[in-house]
Amino acid sequence: MRSFCRSAAGFSLIEVLIALAIVGLALGATATVYGNGYLSHGAAQDVDTALALAEQKLDATGVTETLRPGHEEGSFDTRFRWQMAISKYEDRGAASDEMATGLRLFHVGITVLWRDGLRERQIALSTLRLAPQPP
User: Fold this and answer.
1) Could you tell me the pTM of the whole model?
2) How far apart are CA 47 and CA 112, in angstroms?
3) Beta strands 70-75 and 81-88: pairing type?
4) So where are the chain's domains?
5) Can you list the alpha helix ranges (DSSP code H) found in the chain?
């Protein structure tokens, strides 16, 4: 009769299948982490682009044309749209010197919108600008 030594037999089929399942789960979890990181990086790039476009539009406002209260819209390219609102700034606590100086404070707000998959994202900036009174 033959006697088999259990320690020299190697791995059984069930042990190999369990090891492969564990490796598969670990690789799946790793792929999910890298995939989420890639998507987050893309979303962060979109926010950086929208912020740069908003700052660019805000910086150019009132440089070549006189500021006037109103609302404007446009697009930077096919992905990013902008909306700008200009209104007279009313400081209730300060006395009005606009007649003496000919200058007035305007509130300028810009919102940049874009689509991220099915969701619409936006970023908004606003500032005060001192400009001549519109005629």
Assistant:
1) 0.65
2) 10
3) antiparallel
4) 11-132
5) 13-60, 98-101
